[in-house]
């Protein structure tokens, strides 16, 4: 049998065979959507489509790498472009930088750099921000960008003080980014979408270039991504979207579930394929998942069955406190391993990263190897950012943020006042900060010593810039010695500095590996781009034999034989801030659904009666989602608690319980450190009042869901 179709069912084959025209593969978890995407690429190639005409997009580096591997296995050497939306955006922008006022060597600012830029703009413009934090303002700007509202078109809504402030800050922030030839994460999509929208020639060119576009996890596209995809699918409407509206979990980052729900009206001639067989989970797991997700109103009902075994009943465990929970989970993993499972068969999911610490301890006590997925941490470290800022400046001398970061790091006696004067001089003359440093003699109010230090700094950068085309390891090594950065750390006795030194060594190793993969030098920008666009899940090693610990958000698309979801508690899952908002509550239910449907054979959901969180011991309220599951067929266990089973049986009980307990106030940073990019619409919104809402959701007929204006 043809290997391309050997492991596909009839519906999957139908989707894989599809060549011309739009297609929507709408199907539940574990039904082979991702498999269809990779097989279809192989099929297109076999049909004679050129690899250059194919573009496959998804959301994480990990997912795109995985797809690339699969495609490569079926069509060796095909070099199809599989990418994340953000990488794709960056690539297009480098090609068409001039269209949006950037230079091709633009810098991509991470959340921290963007925030610093925003703060500088507010300070420089003496903009009064009332009590709104920079984070809050940044969220509002991010939300606007994801809605494709540019700085020029942003209008303050009357009566909203925040929007009035944003109306002032946003244009200034955007101007500052452009002056530095820099973009934030949202811009990678916004600029591209706008460019496509405004330049029909470019649009037509790219539509022609990428004749076949495939998107996995389409349910998580936001407005900007939607516009990009639509614009490139006018003359060649061969857009194939794969997704599951029930797994849309990035609303807070601007994902718009309407994009998938309305795909069919966007493309009237669309071919719709439904995959109904789940190959991943046991019957027991699937029934629990299905009963939960049915309670969402904003959805299209789907049927999903499996020929897999019934499997063990799903476990719902009540622990006395979080230590019991951590120990309980670790004990079971240890027992599972003793019985012949591998560590990598297990995964533990939680809503917020802050919950992982105690779990880690549990596994460590048992000596169980684990990998904790915590994202971008490495490249966020101060010393790494310091060193990379030099690289940034070499690559893009207009990058003021990088200049600010490096000008007095390591300390070279250039004070705040001097920097302010340089900044002002640069602003007035429309030049970069680095340029201003070169002309320090002309800057008013600088004494001879300051002029000397500043000029030396500029000369240092100019010297380093000569290295731009060298191998990465050489560039970094030279930066470290020329700036005396390494010396400074070596001379220090502090533990912290020793750690920093170790991290720097790791950076050098990283650079060496990069050089090996990119021989010949001249790849500085590519290296930086990899560092800028890291994802939370990048560090996850599917092959390594370790227990996986990650947030529910990060778990999307993955699968494990045994899954534990911990802290299924009111205020955590659903998250505090969603409790009074029906739409957000539905998203939390989808998040729980995503977690549950990662399990192949065994699933345990648990909560602790008492939890120490942010320094306080509190009595918890079990998640309302637990009430919505078919508990009569689940295995209920109570461990470490005197007394009996405590799960309330109806809403009256939840209210009673709630009266004598407190909700967690989950700090919003911890809550959302699962996001892959800085885009973070609304993540800082306050949760509002804390009274729980029954999980039943008002019925809203699908037709009543507002139809967004679509791109013609
Ligand atoms: P999710 O919604 O969680 O992303 P998905 O729909 O993308 O899931 P896949 O990850 O593609 O599903 O497939 C789920 C599992 O089922 C994988 O292990 C895959 O290899 C397996 N699978 C898919 N199709 C088949 C098939 N026809 N026969 C056997 N196994 C299959
Ligand atoms: Mg998938």
Largest sheet entry: 8 strands, mixed
- The amount of helix comes to 40-55%
User: Which ligands are bound?
Assistant: adenosine-5'-triphosphate, magnesium ion
List the quaternary state of the chains: single chain
The fraction of residues assigned to DSSP E strands is: 5-15%
Give Rg in angstroms: 26 Å
Main structural class: alpha/beta
Unreliable runs: 648-712
Overall body shape:
globular
Helix tally equals 30
Number of strand elements: 16
Mean pLDDT across every amino acid position: 87
Distance between the termini: 44 Å
A few lines on this structure:
The chain is an alpha/beta fold and 712 residues long.
List the helices and strands and how they pair.
Blueprint: H1 3-6, H2 10-17, E1 23-27, H3 33-46, E2 54-58, H4 61-74, E3 81-84, H5 85-95, E4 107-108, H6 111-124, H7 134-146, H8 161-179, E5 182-183, H9 185-198, H10 200-209, E6 212-215, H11 223-231, E7 238-243, H12 258-261, H13 263-266, E8 271-275, H14 283-293, E9 315-321, H15 322-338, E10 346-350, H16 356-365, E11 370-372, H17 377-380, H18 382-395, H19 400-406, H20 416-429, H21 433-438, H22 448-465, H23 472-482, H24 485-491, H25 495-517, H26 524-532, E12 547-551, E13 560-565, H27 582-596, E14 599-613, E15 616-619, H28 624-627, E16 635-639, H29 651-659, H30 668-671
Parallel strand pairs: 1-7, 1-8, 2-3, 2-6, 4-5, 6-7, 9-14, 9-16, 10-12, 10-13, 11-12, 13-14
Antiparallel strand pairs: 14-15
Helix pairs in contact: 2-3, 3-4, 5-9, 6-8, 9-10, 9-11, 14-27, 15-16, 18-19, 18-22, 18-23, 18-25, 23-25
Bound molecules: adenosine-5'-triphosphate (ATP) and magnesium ion.
